[in-house]
Amino acid sequence: MDSYASLSRLGKEEIKDYFKEKLHHSPDLYFYELPVKESTLLFIYMKNLVDDSTLSQFILSPIIGNLACFNSEMSELRYKLLVTDTILTEDGEVAIKNILDGYVYIFSNHGETGILANVAKKVERGLEKAETESLVFGPKISFTESLSTNISIVRQNILLDDLCTRKLTVGKRNETEIRLVYIKGIADDESVAYIEDKITKLEVKEILDTSVLAQLIEDNSYSVFPQYLQTELPDRVTYSLERGMIAVFVDRSPMVLLGPATLFNFFESTEDVYMRWNMGSFIRSLRYLTMFLSILLTPAYVAIITYHYEMIPSTLIVSLGESRSKVPFSPILEAFLLEIMIELLREAGARLPTKVGQTMGIVGGIVLGQAAVEAGFTSNILIIVVALSALGSFTAPSYLMGTAIRITRFPILILGGLWGGVGIAIGLCFILIHLLRLSSAGKPYLRPVYPLDLKRVKNTVLRIPVEMMKTNPDKRGFFSFNGKYSKDIDE
């Protein structure tokens, strides 16, 4: 059957055939006929997408109760229904799209238009404790896969009339609803327009998850460093919105994008705010230190053992020589094998069920490490170095940033094995240049260090006391940036 632009030209049986053909004779497609005076009302819906009690109580009961005064005008029948979300339409494509979203389509064989009424049965889980971002202090709940629930949580946390939301849709084949959420007057209007333009220009069939959307709208999709912060914590979204960031919610995804983000945002946690300022500053500084050590520790070991052994203290060089005396591999190959083994243990622990994964990580690490040393496969000192490097990458609150650090370690390790300290310096220079050129939603990735902004540095690298936050002269949020940013580091 051909596609009809208007259903008003079709009879009852033709309408049934139209919906059957369009929905490929789905067994869930249901037709219900209600004789009314000289006409017949036809109810069309997907059985597994509607709430039967809502359909019966708020749709059928009011219609049956008003049969005596019924006429064929759908515009009048619309106001008899006890649901507020209704649409008058005669377009078959619009009807099918909404039926697949849980609407019931009501049509009269004497009418020229039909009514779409929302009786959807939304399947969603309740509010639960966050799994990927664990906190000691602060709220423990996480977002769910329901977009409306997530937006309501944010509105309960931010009771401001300046909290703005913009609705967007992406996907040619399977449309997905996306919401931009920001606080007007604090968020940078240029950043809001930039992110909205990026999303509206997407030409994709569908968006599977928030992480997929992040990859599509990033300024540099080839960079290993994430340019949008992903979180499942409502309090982190609230904290970020009040600092001028923009939140991007995707329907059917429990994760939220926050941008424009800086490198330092990925090492911050709302737990830093809940703690005393000196404790929060210490822990935040520890994260930066462990990130640096995680990248450099293993490459530095390989470079020193291979080229700069004169840097090793004389008291340590004897034990180090004894430890490596039975190892048949070169330092770079030995380090590579251990790094790969650590990554395999981490990946296996993440993919297995929780209890089995924890056991696998602990037992596997101890057994393999001890067996590798006894077999002369590796030295015990390198095991300590690789373990410290792995622990350093795990301290990042963001899983994506922790993964980026682990990946960055491998090219630095190769350069350290080939050219020693000079190779490590070259690798660090390349990383620094890349970070200087990188941007998030058009804003510098290393802000406020580059371009330097002393007013904001104090609450980025460290966690300043609360009384200093109250007197902070910055009223437009952290990411307001009036100057023109150029990606050329020479300017």
Secondary structure elements and their pairing?
Layout: H1 12-22, E1 29-36, E2 39-46, H2 52-65, H3 74-77, E3 86-89, H4 92-99, E4 103-108, E5 114-118, H5 147-157, E6 163-170, E7 176-183, H6 189-200, H7 210-217, E8 229-231, H8 234-242, E9 246-250, E10 256-259, H9 270-274, H10 277-306, H11 314-324, H12 331-351, H13 354-374, H14 380-394, H15 399-437, E11 439-440, E12 443-444, H16 454-457, H17 466-470
Antiparallel strand pairs: 1-2, 2-4, 3-5, 4-5, 6-7, 7-9, 8-10, 9-10, 11-12
Helix pairs in contact: 5-8, 10-14, 10-15, 12-13, 12-14, 12-15
The major sheet is characterized as:
5 strands, antiparallel
Give unreliable regions as ranges. Answer: 471-476, 478-491
Q: How large is the count of helical segments?
A: 17
Average residue-wise pLDDT:
85
Structural class call reads: alpha+beta
Distance between the termini: 64 Å
What portion of residues belong to β-strands? 5-15%
Gyration radius, to the nearest Å?
30 Å
Q: Give the strand order, joined by hyphens, for the main sheet.
A: 1-2-4-5-3
Main location: membrane
Family: Belongs to the GerABKA family.
Subcellular location: Cell membrane; Membrane
Protein name: Spore germination protein
Characteristic terms for this protein:
five-stranded antiparallel sheet, about 45% helix, Spore germination protein, alpha+beta, single chain, 17 helices, about 15% strand, disordered C terminus, 3 domains, about 500 residues
